[in-house]
Amino acid sequence: MDYENLTYTQDGHVVTLTYDRPQQHNAINRAMAAELHHAWRRFRDDDGAFVLVITGAGETTFCAGWDLADAASLDDLGDFDAFRVSLYDDPGPCGYTRRVDVFKPVIAAVNGGAFAAGLETALLADIRIGAENAEFGALERRWNIVGGDGLTARLPLVVGFARAMELIITGRRIDVHEAERIGLVNEVVPRGQALERARALAREIAELPQGAIRADKESVVRGVGRTLEERLRIEAEMVISMFMRRDSHTIGAGAFKERRKPEWPHHGL
Question: Which residues, other chains included, contact 59 with Cβ-Cβ below 8 Å and sequence gap of 6+?
């Protein structure tokens, strides 16, 4: 697929996916959503892609959310049953937001406003790097639009129930320092440096053995909402899967014993 609303670049094992509609504040329309579905699967299925960095074009907006000019043309939903089925089957109205099958690390370089579906997009990342001018908010409240791309599912997991409910109900904007304080942002950097920092971190992660990273992320994701016993069983499954690849296990343990840096064949996969 040729992208008209995104840029997809790869440097070594690091992929950078840029939401590229700066004149529309990187808002997501239907064409862009279709491209996002393709781009996320492309990253997921590429054996040479280890870490994904997502960001927005320019230095003022990460993503302003759903393109309401495009949404305004959706007045006629047609047959209700057909609409209901299509909605449940949709991988996400504003991108790859209803799938949980990407177990590779994802970093968001939030270079400006992340509002509504833009906030939901940032929540797709495992790590969020925020520039000094980054802001966050569930601004869809203003237009009577519900969170349809993971807002109510992911935000409480990231910042806790009480903080999430405040942001969801009030729709207020918060700056990057408050976002860092409540755990929404992992690190704050000067304006214009979020992407550079995110890529640097991605390169560091790409140098690590990838098998254990993906197994641990899958364990965390699959364990959400389960009992402690179920979560521990999932973790055990991941340990078993890693142990079956004894080359990675013995190489790491052997290097530790001999006090040397391990050399990972196939990047520990």
Answer: 111, 112, 131, 133, 191, 192
How many beta carbons lie within 10 A of that of residue 216, not counting itself?
A: 15
- For the entire predicted model, the pTM comes to 0.92
Provide the angle, in degrees to the nearest 10, between the axes of the packed helices 210-223 and 228-243: 160
Query: pLDDT for 150-172, tens place per residue?
Result: 999 999 999 999 999 999 999 99
Residue 140 is among the residues annotated as catalytic for this protein: yes
The span from the CA of 85 to the CA of 80, in Å, is: 9
* Residue where the block lists tokens 């001018």: 133
Active site residue 263: no
Amino acid at 243: F
The Cβ-side half-sphere exposure at 95, using a 13 Å CA radius, reads 29
Secondary structure class of 187 (helix, strand, coil): strand
CA separation for the pair 234, 232 (Å, rounded): 5
Given the residues 35, 120, 135, 218, select the one marked as catalytic. Answer: 120
Catalytic entry in 35, 132, 135, 140: 140
User: Is 137 in contact with 167 (CB distance < 8 Å)?
Assistant: yes
Task: For residue 59, give both structure tokens.
Answer: 């230095």
Rg (CA), the chain: 19
